[in-house]
Every structure is written in structure tokens, then in C-alpha cells.
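Incident review: delayed structure delivery

Summary: a single-chain prediction request sat in the queue longer than the usual turnaround. Root cause was a stuck worker, restarted by the on-call engineer. No data loss occurred. The affected request and its eventual output are reproduced below so the record is complete for anyone auditing the incident later.

Affected input:
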Amino acid sequence: MRFETSQHMKLGQQMKLAPRMIQSMEILQMPLAELQERIEQELASNPTLELVEIEPDESERRDANADADGVLDLSDPGEADFARLDTFEESNPDAAENTFDDGVASRETDLFDRMPDRRAASRLEGEPNARMEAMASAPARGASLGEQLADQWAVADVIDPLRPIGAAIIAFLDEDGYLRVPLEEIADKAPRPEGVETWPPSMDDLELGLQAVQLLLEPAGVGARDARECLLLQIDAQLDSLADAADTEDDAARAVAPAPILRHARVIVDRHLDDLMKNRLPRIADETGLDLDEIRLALEALRRLSLAPARRLVEERSEPIIPDAIVEYDEDNDRYVAYLNDTRMPNLRINREYALMSKDRAVPKPDRDFLKTNLSNAQWLMDAVEQRRGTLLRVVRAVVDAQREAFDHGIEALKPLPMTLVAEQLGVHVATVSRAVADKHLLTPHGVLPLRGFFTGGLSTESGEEVSANAVKAVLRELVDNEDKSKPLSDEALAKALKDKGFEIARRTVAKYRGQLDIPGARMRKQF
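Output delivered after worker restart:
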């Protein structure tokens, strides 16, 4: 075997993705609420970026940046960066190397040209620090599920040998409160608690610990191993509560009344859960001896239970949807106008004092380098935000022009609108349009609607007119909502009803649209 070394020269081209380009694309894709959070993070970490209030004359100048069509000046290199990124993603899907150029030298002149002459508002004597106020108003983190259950277990009335076992079981509960891990695995994986000599516990002790967790922790159902056990635990807890109420004088008669219904519900869950999941109520009636009215009352009781009981402990704040743009009807000109909902967007600028310090030779070089890096980051963020504003506004107005009938009559009048058509119209790559509409919403005369919903494929009606898939789905939803629930329409019947309305659509397409709308099949929709 022979080993040797040699030198070779290879000539080639390789496109590398700059981190700044990645940042621009991420900001373009962010919805308004997420972008505000991103800006707040930059304000907290970058001392050269500051938040100021928009003055009246400054607001007018900002609005004047739009041309007659409402399109901002897009001569900034950001748009070209978007196109280059789209080309790069198609030709280099596995590229991992990135180049980095902070661009301080090339953008230094532009940086000082765009700075305001006045000092930072946060440094004026007597004025509040806007950045600190924004950070102080952030909500505190709530206690996690594990923390709340551990606090309950710490004060639970349980014998000492079971206390570390219950704590170990709680650590393995998922976010819904289920114990998805076998007890044998807990015995193998749970670390030895401090001060406990005998570990791991036996299977009998683990079973006792699990029973204690299920009985003592709230809400009922926590610690269940499957849906059946979860429902049974909640029914048993309600039956116990009714029994306790029956022993008191307050509302005793009313408290006992639901008990038979709960007992019927327990039988159904314990022995006929599979039939219940498949809506086979007549079979349940035959095997239990209950009539359909009693079964319906039991189902009403079951609907008040939860298959994810632990989620009641964790506050899930549903963030309100903040529309990124607003579409209004202009009666004088008989047209729809669109503008961005950026009144809540913070007004950013460079801190002039830090900018001057970055050029002051008297300042130590490490400090100047630190300031230059942060000044570059701040400038790039401001440019990316402005670039996002211009691109999003152009896309929204293209949608408004193309979907006039939908804004007049609702989503039933949507027309097919491929993203490639809008991309060609705006002179950008289709990936740029896709990122611009991602997670964005419009406030329209018909409510808040997702921007991506205006881009759909199409079908042809019997008259040859093109209609969007979303319009067909809206008609399909209306047919299901108005059907006779005792005799729900099959997919074949739905296809025929759509044909009667002028939509030529196959049964399998009806089934696909029904699944996308989360509409169950005819058997599951049937009401006995």
C-alpha cells in the first residue's frame, strides 16, 4: 500500500448566505405582534437603539414616504437580498456555511446622515425611559404545571413513604396531566430523592403512590393513564361531591338529582367507550338497557368533562389577533383602500451620543468596536423593518385589486389567485410573497381574515366561471350546518348538492375539503 500527498487547485463558485439576509427574511415573515416582541428584545439588548414617540411632523413625513399608489421606495438592497435568498434556497438546500460582514465601514456615512439632530428622548432630564417602561410592563411568568402540582402534593394528607413516590410520578406527567410512562420505567429512571434510603420503590408502592396522586390532586383526572381512566376519575369525583352535598341541608335534593345521570355516564365510559367514539348509540342502548333520552343526558354530562384536565391549571392566554393591515371601502371613489396597521409600531432611531462615541478616537478601541457592532445591528434592524413595511403593503394592495368581489360579498366570492401571479406583478420571487403573507391578517369589512386565505387554487363552475377552493369550502360548510342532523348528508349527497349550486366537484374532493374543515363524516354527525 502506498501513501502520498499532493496539491491541487480547484476553481468554482459558491453562494453563501449572509446572516443579515437571514435576519431580513425572518422579519419579513413575522406577524405584527411577533415583530413588536423582536423589537423590544433588540431595545433591551442594544444600547445604541432607542425608542421615541412620533411627532406630528415626523408622522406626516413617514406617510409621505409612500407614492401615489401607496408603495414605499424599495431601492434599498433588501429587496435584492430577498431575491438572492430565494435563488440560494432553491440551488443550495443543504448549505451550512454563512459569511458575515458587519458592514460598518460601508454604511457609516449613511448611519450619520439618517440620525436626528436632537438628543435621545430617554436621556432628556425629567422624561421617562421608554425602554425601561416597556420592559417593566411585561407580564410575569406564571407557575408551571409541575410547580403547581408539586405545591399541592407538598401539603397533601399522605403518609411519608408515599411522598417521594408521588413527587417522582408528578415529574413524569405530561402537559395534559396524563401519565404516559409505565410505572416500571419510573422505577428505573426516577432519581433517588434526597434522604430516601430505599429506592427504587416496589411496583405495589408505585401503584399506591399513583392512586394517591389521582385522588388528592386537583383538578380531577390528573394522573390518568388514558382517556377512559381520565373520564372515570372526573365522574367519580363528581359523584363524591354530590354525595357530600346530599349529607348537608343546603340544596340536598337538587344535588342528588344528577347522580343517576353520572352513573349512566360512568357505565358508558367504562364498558362502551369504543361504541361512544363511533356514535353507535343504538348499540349502547341495546346493551345497557338505557333509552336514547337517558344516553343523551349522559352525553351532556360527559361533554362538561375534560380530556386534558391539567390545562385548567396553566393559564393559556390566547393572544388576540392583531391585523397587520386594514382594508376599508372608499365610498367617494368606489374602491377599497389598504394601509398598514403600524400605529402601534415603535418608532426607532439611533442614539446620537453612542454614534459620535464610535468615531471618537479618545474612546478606547474595544469600546468603539462594541459600539460600531451594535450600531450596525440597529441600522440593519431598522432597514429590515422598513423593508418589511414596503413589501407587505405592496402585496396587500395587489390582493385588494385582485379580490374586489370577495371584499364586496365575502369569501364565497373569492377568485383563484396563485402567488406566482402576484410575484410576477410585483417583480419579486414567489418565496418573497409567501413569506410576506405568512401569519398575517387583514381587518376587512367582513372581519379579520388571514391574508394567506386570499391565495387559493380554483375550480370551474358549470358556466365556466373560475371560483376559489375557499369559496367551495364556504358553501360546503353552509350545507353541513343546515342539514337535517337526524339524516346527515353523505359525501356523495354533498357532492350532488354542490353540483346543484353550480360547483362540479368529485366525492373524493368533498371528503378532502370536509377533512380540511374538521367536519366529521355523516355517521359521526348523526343525532339520534
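Verification: The chain is about 50% helix and 5% strand.
Action items: add queue-age alerting; document worker restart procedure.
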